[in-house]
């Protein structure tokens, strides 16, 4: 089989919060008539510049056309050469590689008539426990709005949540207090995510305030400045809770092991540049005797399905994971969205080939936008993932 063409389509899909995220839907065509699909998810993150999609298409064609899609390791190496790793969480080259890598897996698995999980190591599980995100509050009046989100999502079966914290600790505390009073043991807050906002010592003070509540906390995430591997270790040694951090490059993961920075690696294909890289990062975690969760950038269904296939094969997925993107957006671009039940992300059936997701061309047309350019958006919105415009 040979790759014959590549198509990239940009879509802008609003979240229930009003915040719009731009993604690129990838199609890889082959001389066997099989088409692989992938997703370069959520370009709506800092830094506030965007790749030119026409130019990007030309570059990716120059790397892939004429190649055998089964040469996944070779093609990943080529992709890293063209879109190198950086020591930055939201490096857009990783998003690009991720969308291509997923489409290669989808194409090859469809050709073989098997599910992507069966290319990645089969199934240790066929559902993954996930949590619903509560985005960062800056104002007290956002507390009640977020309690309402918990009420609504709990009714839909999401009993585990994670909370982005660190800009208004009074609001964070008021939220946790209200959750404990209203829901008691019915709801779990599995993680407090500080998103690298503070140095570790400032975070430690906040952690002392926010861990008074008995809400089943599994981990504290990103509690030091980005790439402060020693800082992570300092806070890790001073709190009883496991520390988690995202993996965004091979070097950064190595440094975190060297400095014994974390208990849990938060691994998302989008931030490490694909299923292949994510699988390797999970193996590295296993070697270092660390736990793993699947993180998220809030993917649509294609990106989330790819993570479900990856998670199915991981033996060290020891804590509650994060991918609930399709529940956050008001729409999607597929005929069959990924399926959530009782707070679990369910894998597509094993008999369904590839990622198990079918594109809906009408929905693609509905959400298509001309490019990845930025509208009116503030740094706060980009950091906090809310439509909140107050400063
Ligand atoms: O755990 C995280 O950190 C995230 O989920 C990052 C978010 O910013 C996410 O990418 C989003 O777009 O909401
Ligand atoms: Mg995080
Ligand atoms: Mg994101």
UniProtKB/TrEMBL annotation:
UniProt KW Amino-acid biosynthesis keyword: no
Tree of life domain: Bacteria
Start and end residues of each Mandelate racemase/muconate lactonizing enzyme C-terminal domain: 143-242
Keyword hit for DNA damage: no
InterPro entries: DgoD-like, Enolase-like_C_sf, Enolase-like_N, Enolase_C-like, Galactarate_dehydratase_2, Mandelate_racemase_C, Mandelate_racemase_N_dom
Xref: SUPFAM superfamilies: Enolase C-terminal domain-like (SSF51604), Enolase N-terminal domain-like (SSF54826)
Entries under SMART domains matching the protein: MR_MLE
Keyword terms, alphabetized: Metal-binding
Signal peptide, first to last residue: none
Pfam families for this protein: MR_MLE_C, MR_MLE_N
PANTHER family linked to this entry: D-GALACTONATE DEHYDRATASE-RELATED
Protein name, entry field: Mandelate racemase/muconate lactonizing enzyme family protein
Source species of the chain: Metabacillus rhizosphaerae
């Amino acid at each position: 089989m040979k790759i014959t063409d590549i198509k990239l389509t940009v879509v802008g899909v609003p979240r229930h919060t009003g915040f719009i995220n731009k993604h690129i839907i990838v199609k890889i065509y082959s001389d066997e008539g099989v088409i692989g699909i992938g997703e370069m998810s959520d370009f709506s993150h800092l830094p506030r510049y965007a790749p030119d999609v026409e130019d990007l298409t030309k570059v990716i064609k120059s790397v892939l056309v004429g190649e055998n899609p089964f040469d996944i390791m070779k093609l990943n190496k080529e992709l890293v050469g063209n879109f190198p790793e950086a020591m930055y969480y939201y490096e857009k080259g990783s998003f690009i590689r991720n969308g291509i890598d997923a489409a290669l897996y989808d194409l090859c698995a469809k050709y073989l008539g098997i599910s992507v999980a069966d290319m990645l190591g089969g199934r240790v599980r066929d559902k993954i426990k996930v949590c619903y995100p509560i985005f960062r509050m800056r104002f007290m009046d956002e507390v009640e709005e977020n309690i309402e989100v918990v009420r609504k999502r709990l009714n839909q079966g999401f009993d585990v949540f994670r909370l982005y914290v660190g800009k208004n600790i009074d609001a964070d505390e008021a939220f946790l207090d209200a959750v404990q009073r209203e829901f008691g043991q019915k709801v779990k807050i599995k993680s407090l995510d500080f998103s690298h906002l503070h140095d570790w010592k400032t975070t430690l003070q906040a952690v002392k305030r926010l861990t008074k509540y008995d809400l089943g906390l599994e981990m504290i995430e990103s509690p030091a400045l980005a790439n402060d591997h020693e800082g992570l270790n300092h806070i890790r040694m001073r709190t009883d809770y496991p520390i988690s951090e995202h993996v965004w490059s091979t070097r950064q993961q190595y440094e975190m092991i060297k400095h014994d920075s974390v208990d849990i690696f938060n691994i998302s294909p989008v931030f490490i540049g694909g299923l292949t890289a994510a699988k390797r990062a999970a193996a590295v975690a296993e070697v270092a005797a660390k736990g793993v969760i699947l993180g998220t950038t809030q993917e649509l269904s294609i990106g989330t399905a790819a993570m479900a296939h990856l998670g199915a094969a991981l033996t060290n997925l020891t804590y509650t994971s994060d991918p609930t993107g399709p529940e956050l957006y008001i729409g999607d671009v597929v005929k069959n969205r990924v399926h959530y039940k009782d707070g679990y992300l369910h894998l597509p059936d094993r008999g369904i080939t590839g990622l198990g997701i079918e594109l809906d061309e009408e929905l693609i047309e509905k959400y298509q936008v001309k490019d990845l350019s930025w509208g009116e958006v503030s740094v706060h919105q980009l950091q906090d993932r809310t439509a909140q415009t107050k400063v």
